[in-house]
Structures
1.
Amino acid sequence: MDLGPHAAFIWISYAAVTVTVTGLILWLIADGRKQAADLEALERQGVKRRSSSPGVR
Amino acid sequence: MQLIAEDLAIDRGARRVIDGLSFAVKAGEALLLTGANGAGKTTLLRTLAGYIRPFRGRVRLEGGDDELTVAEQAHVVGHTNAVKLSLSVAENAAFWNAYLDSGEDAELRVGTALRHFGLEDLSEFPAAYLSAGQKRRLGLARLLVARRPVWLLDEPTASLDTASSERLVAAVNDHTNSGGLAVIATHLPLALERARTLNLAAQKVPA
Amino acid sequence: MQTLTQRLANPTRFMELSARLLPWISAGAVVLLAYGLYLAFFASPADYQQGETVRIMYIHVPCAWLSMMVYALIALSSFGLLVFRHPLADVSAKAAAPLGAAFTFLALLTGSLWGKPMWGTYWVWDARLTSVLILFFLYLGLIALRSALEDESAASKLTAILALVGVTILPIIKFSVDWWNTLHQPSTDFTSTVDPSMRLPLLVMAIAFTLLFFAMHLKAMRNEILRRRVKALRTQAVAGRDRLAAHGAE
Amino acid sequence: MKSFWALLHRDVTLAIREGGAIGTALGFFLVVVSLMPLGLGPDLNLLSRIAAGILWIALLLAALLSLNRIFEADHEDGTLDVLATGPLPLELVTAAKSLAHWVTTGIPLAIMAPVLGILLNLDLAAYPILVATTLVGTPAVSFLGAIGAALTMKTRRGGLLLALIVLPLYVPTLIFGISAVSAGAGPTGLAASFLILAAISLVTIVLGPLAAAAALKVHLQ
């Protein structure tokens, strides 16, 4: 695909957006896993929520 | 007139400090709050003063001015003295008189207040020269520079010597005798004339 | 609408609903993104004026659109928090701020990468660029203020106040920057009417990015709710230990 | 209303007695302005062209230094708690304190600006306009600054955060303050930007105390 004399600018733009958005998504997924794991660890220790509604995770 | 707390539940952070507390303080009465550190004395006082919104329940002043909030009818003395170091003792008192009481018979009130707390000789000194106890007395002098029916005092005797504590007790007795009411958090017994005691630790709902 | 927001008010409900919604939104975003990229690279011609560089527009415009939409969302959430004390409003505002900042940054970056071949410089103090830059600063302010405050509930309310102040002042900033720009240099009108061949890819990409944002926002909100639960449980666990210690001492 | 004046009077008295804040702001203003020619070179034509911009930016930075004390001192010694129980709504408390900041910082800086203009070879005709715009524009600086001061009152590293929050809000004031002074604006442009500057100040005088009071209410809990 020929993108003309300014191809580099186009590729860098798309690469920057891809990297940033992918980075954000990976961070969100990792953060979600960590919180879920922490929550599970606490529940395994027997700490229950005061206003616990069953089946909430 | 009476200050009524109904079924208060107060949270600090994620912790429920006070749960299901109700009481009433009538005009002419003083209520002493006792309890260990962390029992919620300061929290309760700040809730009565309206700084903290309780999770449940409410605070009202029956027979007070319905136009005003409880805080606007109360003197609140916390751990800090609200004293400006670069103003003189008299200027500090005069400011609170002008701000809280629209400056009615200012000189008389300020003079009486300073005299009651033994500060009249120091009135021209900048507050920066005062000792901790003297600053505390200047902070307490605010109680007398403006008329307010409700006094909410948090450890008022902190850094006061015996003689000064007696002056405070006399001020509270005068206040209740003339129809005011007071809620005082303290861990020292105060020789008040008409006082009840509320032990916050005992009020706690068992876990 | 009332019933929907009421039902959503319960974080538990929200967790259930968002768990069901999230895969669909993500899938929609991926499909539209693929279609949009195909349109952007293969099915649309080069612009007669901008040449191939026009393809940067297909990601720049959606980022710029999101930079504004996300701020509006934060302002709306802040309003919901301060006025209605909606329990999810703060979660929404907190989750949206870093995403909004990221898209604003991308809008600035892609804009300047488009500007270099078109205007011959990476940055011009054009009215639009300047106001987006200030928007970026507002995002940074929101994030920094929240991170500087220990107490979560105070942090949420103060950030909400700042967001609302920002939203009231933004039009004035925008107006002043426009005015300043016309004063200093003749304004170049780059917003020539959009050619139909560009309209479809732009539209598809804008919708794709919007869906992408909402998927990320939902995920971030879910994470935030979990984080708050973890925090609550930890405080509770510590308080429990305290009580045990007190009993032991008696 | 008596409470309002009492508070304003007290704040002004305190600022004059303690002196440090005003002196520091003025000194900082002088230092920043005199650093500029060192950075830009001693070309008098260049300096006189950008004098208005330099003066306004230095003025904003100098004002920024003193902002964090608006509420912090009263918060530390417990005065704010008591002020909140007074007959004055918190919105008027913040208004009085912002006004006091303007009187003790905005006005001295506005008076200092033309003096520093000499260092920058500011066009002689621009002097009255400079004084007028700084006087009309600095209320916005104080009242917007009070919002930031109230928001960051209890934060660690509050000063830096305050700058990050407040400086973007200063953009309109900066733009119209400078455009009124710059020679190219002409009489109609001058009148327009002057009026807009006044309008911005009026808007912030209304908006600032509301937002600052809302922030203080959160802190008092």
2.
Amino acid sequence: QKKQLVIVVKGLDNPFFEAINQGCQKWNSENASSEYECFYTGPASTSDEAGEAQIVQDMLGKPSTVAIAISPSNAKLIAQTIKTAAPTIPVMTLDADLAKEDAALRKTYLGTDNYLMGKRIGDYMKEALPKGGKVCSIQGNPGADNILRRAQGWRDSLSGQEGLTELKGEGGWTEVAGCPVFTNDDGAKGVQAMTDILAANPDLVGFGIMGGWPLFGAPQPYRDLFKPLAEKIAANEFVIGAADTIGEEVAIAKEGLVTALVGQRPFEMGYKAPTVMIDLIGGKPVEDPVFTGLDECTKDTADTCIQK
Amino acid sequence: MAISTLDQTIGQKQQSWLSGVLGSQTFWVFIAVVAACIFLSFATDAFATSKNLYNITRNVTFVAIIALGMTLVIITGGIDLSVGSVLCLCSMVLGVTMHAGYGIEVGIAASIATALIIGAFNGVLIAYLGFPPFVVTLGMLSVARSLAMVASNNTVVFQFGPDHDLLLSLGGGAWFFGIANPVLYMIVLALITGFVLRWTRFGRYVYAIGGNEHAATLTGVPVKPIKVAVYMISALSAGIAGIIQTGWLGAITTNLGAGLELQVIAAAVIGGANLAGGIGTATGALIGAALIEIIRNSLGLLGINAFWQGTFIGSAIILAVLFERIRNFRQSE
Amino acid sequence: MAISTLDQTIGQKQQSWLSGVLGSQTFWVFIAVVAACIFLSFATDAFATSKNLYNITRNVTFVAIIALGMTLVIITGGIDLSVGSVLCLCSMVLGVTMHAGYGIEVGIAASIATALIIGAFNGVLIAYLGFPPFVVTLGMLSVARSLAMVASNNTVVFQFGPDHDLLLSLGGGAWFFGIANPVLYMIVLALITGFVLRWTRFGRYVYAIGGNEHAATLTGVPVKPIKVAVYMISALSAGIAGIIQTGWLGAITTNLGAGLELQVIAAAVIGGANLAGGIGTATGALIGAALIEIIRNSLGLLGINAFWQGTFIGSAIILAVLFERIRNFRQSE
Amino acid sequence: MAVLELSNISKHFGAIQAVNDVSLSIEPGEVVGLMGDNGAGKSTLVKMIAGNFRPSEGTMKMDGAELILHKPVEARRHGIEIVHQDLALCNNLTAAANVFLGRELRRGFGPFAVLDYATMYRRAGELFKELKSETRPRDLVKKMSGGQRQAVAIARTRLSNAKIVLMDEPTAAISVRQVAEVLSLIHRLRDQGIAVVLISHRMPDVFSVADRVIVLRRGRKVADKKIASSSPEEVTGLITGAIEQV
Amino acid sequence: MAVLELSNISKHFGAIQAVNDVSLSIEPGEVVGLMGDNGAGKSTLVKMIAGNFRPSEGTMKMDGAELILHKPVEARRHGIEIVHQDLALCNNLTAAANVFLGRELRRGFGPFAVLDYATMYRRAGELFKELKSETRPRDLVKKMSGGQRQAVAIARTRLSNAKIVLMDEPTAAISVRQVAEVLSLIHRLRDQGIAVVLISHRMPDVFSVADRVIVLRRGRKVADKKIASSSPEEVTGLITGAIEQV
Ligand SMILES: Nc1ncnc2c1ncn2[C@@H]1O[C@H](COP(=O)(O)OP(=O)(O)OP(=O)(O)O)[C@@H](O)[C@H]1O
Ligand SMILES: Nc1ncnc2c1ncn2[C@@H]1O[C@H](COP(=O)(O)OP(=O)(O)OP(=O)(O)O)[C@@H](O)[C@H]1O
Ligand SMILES: O[C@@H]1[C@@H](O)[C@H](O)OC[C@H]1O
Ligand SMILES: [Mg+2]
Ligand SMILES: [Mg+2]
């Protein structure tokens, strides 16, 4: 049996992670003769945070596991899991990191610079609508570190200040009641909430969507919701900055129904992770963090924005 | 006793039509729905807009359609926990088939066939082998979602081949007086279900099985085939909801319909279906689903923190049954 | 008939002890668990390691502890769908209290009080007002999770004030021969539950209520208080599991315990509890939980595609009941 | 010629031999009392005649032709009606719906046939009148008294022109007045040439209404006698086993 | 002195007047037949005496002292035992567990008292022997025949030294042989000075065993006569209402 480089993701029900899986499988097919293999797993649902911890433990307990890369849906909980398991093999994070104070528990983080990503989402919104207004952010699991960092970057960009936990008019931006919305990565739920918030706040000027769920998980209702606003979006009177470039997202950008997308490279994460883990096993120096790039898409750049 | 009295007695109905209606949970939940709508129209500008009503009615449909099938199951005294997963699997089958280049008819046929096979599997275990419905459909809840992951390789499916646009307009369009298509399907399905329950032998048997399965067997009601049919209808309703929802969402992920079973059961129960069997209506299923959606929508519109949503919906579930309890209580003690 | 024959007959037991055991679902599921363990020990190096066994036994505990409470509820013929949410709410209450600077005793007391209040609420509606258990606890499922969101403002709680480390070692430590602490709690709770069911009047009444509630009432069993107690115990078991799980996980979000109710019911049912009431044991709850965890764990260790896991677990749920069905089937036709 | 003839009928449930090699024949217009201890196999025997169970062995003949029944409807088609021991009523349905359960009247054709509520209410009302029972066809059975429930169950047997009516303890737990009604109904059936099998533990009922009494013990027929040539004491002896066989 | 005396007892359920202004008294060792149509209020009346329901109006006295019962246990403590119409058995429990249901024997003290299985099995076995019933204390009631079930229900009344035993249709749907057993049990109870109230629709049973018959109609007492000075015909008339009152 081969030595396993294990990737544990937040949940199998999010297609973002399938792209990671495909990267992982590509590595396997290119390294068929290697003594290592990439093994991808995770709980069935992103909301099953304890389930992810159990899988991490199972994998740490397996003798064939020689390194592990985790995307924690609840950073604190996975930190605690690693702490108690006290693994002797290298542990890294992927896509989502542990909280800053727990950084010592993992060797490195491979993935998006989430703070920067959020900041870029905010930058686009601010650039389009400098005077600001009422906005709402759409988030995933309340405990997901990557999403929280994006939200922080987004707020910092809009407010021009650092570390605010809620926008109350700073830089002209205000988060309305009922926000942020935590969707647990469920697209339909996200659009439904956005619909209601828009109805309740006719003077809303924008959404900051910290994960692409509503766009890739429920593209049609998303379109239905924002088609009437297409002109305002084109005129920068309504601004939407969204994460990811999965599924229909780029098409939606091309239709002009989102001001800007800031996408990640999950395939690259999955493809690179085994190499990074092998380096860690071999004791080679590895940077911390290892950032994968961002792909930024607007209506005009939609055809070319994705790095192949 | 004089013959005339006997004649009179036999000709009488115990309850007038009105007292029957006033005594029904469905009626009072309906009143609650109407009252909520009136209140919301005044309390918030956003409620009575055509856009919001369009959204509300459309959001209701998915739960309502499955609640129609679930109501049949509940009337026979059963339960079907697998509907959320079956919806997901049927959507995936549709999506994967169409993505592979087949037309929408093939996709829908494959999807419906999947639903019927699953329903038949549940039904046969329950009716012929005597498995408890809760256990069988709980197992199927796990199995069907897992098969959906396998079928799609867990990717998001959002390109539906040559008939892509047709599928999307089927689920997302509004072909008739600006009413969302799903709403039309829901109304048609509710009319059919209502008709079947009230006017056909099959419907009568569904009630009889729930009332006293043993008696139904003894009097020659084909209990087992009907139970199988009922679980097939339930799975079918989930499949149909899945097809429509796919057309509406324009993308399928494997978390589609997660946890939906409890919402659907809640809708049926709020609408007056009795989990002990023998009682339930198509109208009730719709009204129950409507109440849940209106609560959800109104909390958003009223600016009430989304965290409180569950408290309101949970309380509604309990309160809906309270009325029925008070009535029973009065009668007995 | 001669007196000696009558004496003999009365002295007899219908079934020998052995045939009783061989006829029980719990026994066969136990055999399945043992067989799976033996198979896995040979099939994979990873299974029979002390580390893995430590993990498995600890993972079992949360479902198993709640399944103990659930088994009592199921024996009385009820069901409790709210346990997953109650676990979440109790964890939150513990977390929020300790985070606010109170000691662990205060946190645990607050948490347990919360559980008991919720259980009493469920129980009173069910026992005294005659609400269907499914409906009440379905409503509570919604309400309790929503309250957890309100209590925590939907944030992650991971700092537990002055007694932080104590809480973590309570749930995450292994104070006794390297056995994970939660496992010890589970064993103690299972012994207590088993003792209560078999040797106390309370336990006898729990079975009597599930066997024939009306008969129990007529013979003077305090049916209503006992039903309330049973729902309180169920909520309590969820609360205890929540406290231990918090200590183990070290962080709480409002997703904790989502969907757990179905897993717990599955464990109880696999272990032989009958949803129709009257049948169930503490051992069964443990064995059922163990089977589910072993399947989950082994699929990962055997490198089986994660997509298929649900299929295996779902099939296990159905198969566990199959044995019991076959036996009944043989006897009747 | 016998309206119903059973030859060597047996029925076992797993290891339990509920009915064992029973033969009997019943003439038109004859009232036969079927007696026996609890568990003697009386209900099982009549359920086979009513198409609820299939015999494990033996044959049944009706009007000389072999009778093979797969389901209750088939028995009814042959003119066999039964009042079940537990009445077999659905509490959530109306009296009329219960009367017509399993043979609902419909209007329209083929797939468009719908339940004919009006006719069913009317017919059920007529039947209740015939039975002199104050039972309202539109009322739910749930709210009915024991006597009314009994009337509903008995009304079923009057739906078609039955040749033989099987009554499984129709008088257990009903009051003196209603017992008299049931017995007089049996007389009326007999007068119309309908054969009746009456299962009862009440000696006086059987002796007042039956022409013949058949006794089962542990699944076997141990007696088949004209009432005129028997006595309650003898039948009691046969039931308990004090008298072995006659 | 009367062992039990009811004065103007009434019970209504909502609008339903189940028992209406009933007074009666019972002497030690007396067997009283309680008859009436279905729904006449017989079960409701004995359930009040057994502590299952509380009277809406009226008073009960036992041995001259006022009797107020909140629950069945209290009735038992006063020496009142009842065999319920539906036997009130739990199918999932053993015969012994059913016999002792609600008054389990325990060993040990206070919170450490545990069920005393051994003694309960032994005592139940003794009771079954006394009743001449082939019933095994360790068997589940689920698998028992009608007669065995009846034995279990009756055995309960023998647990303590009852002063009065209420039997609600103990002979409905049981066989001739078992009816005889029950009637002889009633004789034995009477001989020990225990008062018995027997509810039955079977005229012969009541006339063979009772000293006195009380007839209820629509909740009201319409007759209370010595058996010797009445006749089945008169009682029938009273039950049906052909005779208004005596
Ligand atoms: N469906 C069944 N499965 C298994 N055993 C059965 C079934 N039906 C009846 N029996 C058994 O067959 C035997 C005969 O039962 P049956 O109901 O015919 O008796 P019976 O003479 O009608 O008694 P009773 O006077 O109590 O109604 C009994 O031992 C009974 O337990
Ligand atoms: N718990 C109850 N709630 C409401 N009504 C009741 C209740 N118990 C009995 N009744 C009603 O009270 C009346 C008297 O019933 P009861 O059971 O005492 O009659 P009974 O004389 O025992 O009849 P039977 O011979 O059929 O056993 C009936 O109308 C019955 O429906
Ligand atoms: O990186 C993200 C992942 O962690 C989230 O939960 O789903 C989509 C991505 O935005
Ligand atoms: Mg019978
Ligand atoms: Mg009664």
3.
Amino acid sequence: MDGLNASEQRELAGRMEKKQMKEFMTMYSNLVQRCFDDCVTDFSSKSLLSREEGCVMRCVDKFLKGSERLGQRFQEQNAAMAQSGQLPGR
Amino acid sequence: MDGLNASEQRELAGRMEKKQMKEFMTMYSNLVQRCFDDCVTDFSSKSLLSREEGCVMRCVDKFLKGSERLGQRFQEQNAAMAQSGQLPGR
Amino acid sequence: MDGLNASEQRELAGRMEKKQMKEFMTMYSNLVQRCFDDCVTDFSSKSLLSREEGCVMRCVDKFLKGSERLGQRFQEQNAAMAQSGQLPGR
Amino acid sequence: MSFLFGGGRPQPSSAEKIAAAETEIEMVSDMFNRLVSSCTKKCLPPTYAEADLNKGESVCLDRCVSKFFDVNVKVSEKMQGEAGQRQGGAAGGGGGGMFGM
Amino acid sequence: MSFLFGGGRPQPSSAEKIAAAETEIEMVSDMFNRLVSSCTKKCLPPTYAEADLNKGESVCLDRCVSKFFDVNVKVSEKMQGEAGQRQGGAAGGGGGGMFGM
Amino acid sequence: MSFLFGGGRPQPSSAEKIAAAETEIEMVSDMFNRLVSSCTKKCLPPTYAEADLNKGESVCLDRCVSKFFDVNVKVSEKMQGEAGQRQGGAAGGGGGGMFGM
């Protein structure tokens, strides 16, 4: 990305904003589906059981914390790899 | 969507048409893959066995009916949620 | 696709180039995820075990060969179906 | 799903309004696709002994939609709560990491 | 997969023809990706004892493509039949619901 | 993931450079999404007995990222090696088939 001049970077940033919104949406939907799939298994009632609700809340917490941790490690590794030049970049 | 004027709604409708085509394609492909995965498990022959074909036909029927029912409930819930204002919209 | 004139075909080819790049990316990512999921199951160490690495290498080989074979059969079937006119095209 | 687009921005342009409506439709459509995937897996056994939905399957699908919406609401409330908390100062331990990508 | 685009519209414009060709290519490509996913799961055991495809795996892949096409044809015929029936008046019980989203 | 875009083309235009940067960001983002999916499945048991990550889960996630990168590097090296070999003449038995679609 470092080969871009200021105006090109602005153009790219504009496009990225829309993508980030979408990215966030995907993450949100993944979270809903994942916690639903793992926590809701009883269809003898119409509303969430309290144990299902508790499971969903912990699932969201754990998943967000896990994603945050993965994001940190991912960026560290990405940076390390770019620096080491182990794999020739641009 | 209710904040749009007539010309904006036309513009949106145009874009939506393309998306709906794609949406239909995705649904169709999902259906093929789902029924294939669930019904075809024997690879000792090159052509569909009659029991596999029967399974695929019932699978398509059941899946379409299920999707239709889910679509109805989904729209009811969506409408109810929008009305109740339980979750503040725009 | 045969209803297009030369200029339309050029336009289409241009768009396809971008899509092919993306298609390749998706295939590559699928390959990484598939072989990771199937081969890496031990998290008592930070680096790949040699048996995991061996598994990944064979997985990549087998998956590429499998995809190539599937691609050949897919094209043959597609061509046969178009010719037979079993399913009326355009 | 419109509750996800918290309000307050002044006077959006035509293009912005259309884009927002488009995003909302995509979001609802994505949610519906996921609901179909999850609920058919949970309620329709993969043996397909009969072509019609039986009573048990129908009831299961109805309840599945209801519970899926409940989970959606819970997750949305939780995330808005955390976002508010973080803006308010006392940033909780988790969350947020995945959005800064 | 061109059979999915039933004909009859008069004189499409250049842009429309290109868009249709693009959609068709995307559709074929999506189908191929799904076929790869399904057939490798069904035919290649996840242990990867050897790098080469053995005889059994190769034959399984070939038959898998053949059966995948068969299913595709069956599903397509069934849905076209139902669409026709519905247009003709006697709308069958199922189907269609998911397209009106 | 920038190593995937082997260099050598002379003087790309602005639009090309932006498109390339966009593709790179999409690629990294896609990889991260897959990593999240795989590593949370491998390291977080779906019972969610507690809201916090415990020690074992945290360590597992860290190692999972490390191993995921290792696999990525191995696969990339292998595919570049094969591409080189093929260009050099002695086209190996496998590979390549999926890109010609």
